[in-house]
Amino acid sequence: MKIDEIYVVATRSDIRFGRACIASIRYFHPDIPIRLLKDEIFGAFDTRELERHFQVETVQAPQRIWGWGFAKFYPLMLPPGRRVLILDSDILFTHPLLQRLEQYDEDFIVASEPDWPDYEDYVRRAYFVADKLEAFSPGFERRLTFNGGQVVANTGLLTREDFEHYVEFSEPVTVKRPDVFPCGEQGITNHLVNLKLARGEITARALDFMLWADSPRLPHDLPARDGGADGIESYMLAHYTSHKKIYPWKMKGKALYTAFEDLYYHQLPLGWLLERWRFLQPLTAHQKLSLKQRIKKILQALRA
Prior knowledge:
The protein is an alpha/beta fold. It is built from 10 helices and 12 strands. It has helices at 15-28, 48-54, 73-76, 98-101, 119-126, 130-136, 160-164, 185-198, 254-266, 271-303; strands spanning 5-11, 34-39, 56-58, 83-88, 91-93, 108-111, 150-154, 167-168, 174-175, 204-207, 210-212, 237-239. The strands form 3 sheets. It has a 7-stranded mixed sheet with strand order 3-2-1-4-7-6-10. A 3-stranded mixed sheet has the order 5-12-11.
C-alpha cells in the first residue's frame, strides 16, 4: 500500500540529526512529501532552511510543546484516509525503504525486535511494567512490541479519545500512569495497538527493517541510490537513539551519519561554511562549561 507522506518529529536539541535524516530520505525518495513536526519542549528553532531547500512542510499542530516523543501521536490522530511513516529525527535511510514497506497492506507496520536474553527487562524499562499493567488493563494480551521511532500507520485508527485514557494533552503532555508506562509515548502506543489487535479492530505486521547504529550491517559510506544488489528484502533504516553524541566522530555509525550530513550541506548555498560554523557551536558550549567548572573549583578552594 502506498505511503502518502513521512512525518519527522524533531526538537531543538536533535534537529541536527533531523537534517541528516531528511537528507537521507530525499536522497532515495526525492518526491515523497515530508512533514516536519516540531516539538518546542527545548525551545523554538528555525526550520526555514529545510523548507526552502528540501521541500519540507512544517506542520501547524494544535500544540507546540509535546515532550518525550508524544508529538508522534499527532499524525496517528489525523482523520482516516492517509498512510504515513512516522519517524524520530535520529534515523537515516540506508536504502529506498519505501519500496519495501509499500509491499504490505496491514494498518500498522512496525520494526520487529529480537527476543534477546534480558528482553523482558527491556520491555519493562522501555514500554510498560507488566505486573502493574495487569491491574491497569486486565486480560491484556501482548502480541508484539516495537520501538516507536519508526512506524507505518493508517491514520484515524488511534484517536484522541483513545490517547486521553493514558495522557493529559497539556504542554508538555503528561502521562496519567507513569508507574505503568515509564518511557514516553511508545509504551502507550504499544498497548493501544495490541488492544485493538486483540479486538480485531486493526491489523499489524512486525517486520525486520530497522538497524541500531552499532550494527555491523550498517553501511560505512553513502549507499547506492538504487538500493544495491542485495534485493528489496534487505532494505533498512538506521536508528541512532542512545548512540547519538555531540561530537559525530564519537558515535557508532559515524561514517553513515557524516555522509548524509555532508550531503545535506552540499545542497545549501555556502553550505560548507555553515557546516563548519555549526560544528563549532557545541565546542564553544563545551569550552564555556569547562571554564565555569574551573572557576567554581577555584572559588571552592579559596573558601576552604
